[in-house]
Please model this.
Amino acid sequence: MAEEDARSEGGEAAPKGGKKKLIIIAAAVLLVLLIGGGAAFFFLSGGDDESARSSAPVQREAIYVKIRTLEGRPMFVASLENPDGNRHFMQIYAEAKTRDPAVEAVLNQHMPLIVARLNTLFTTADPRALRSVDGIRTLQRDATELVNRLIQDRGGEPGVEIVLFTNFVMQ
Model:
């Protein structure tokens, strides 16, 4: 009987020690898997952030160039004629928005030509169309296209984003 008690105690002691070993091994394997998974996530996701940052273009600060005559007059004054014979006057202050200093230099260099062409564009505008916001936006879009075309014809890259009308008055 004493042998049976010893065997049963020894028999019970062996499985308890085996369970502890099994739990320790399982915890160690789980810890290794967690560390490996965390390392894999860190290394694999870190590369995506760098490639996303490097592929995203760095946007430069906007440069605004006042479109003005050589005398420094900052506005255009155009006389518009309606089909009914009435005469209207339009006054526009304009600025070109770009992000490229090279485009700014080309704008300043060819300012008299740009002013002359924009003046022609503004004097040929239809006063009835300019009574609506859409008509003014169309004139603004036409002015932007004209300035970009002039820059491109002079050997530059068309880099004017928009010609802004900072003041627009029509009587």
Strands lie at 63-67, 75-81, 87-98, 160-170. Residues 1-56 form one domain.
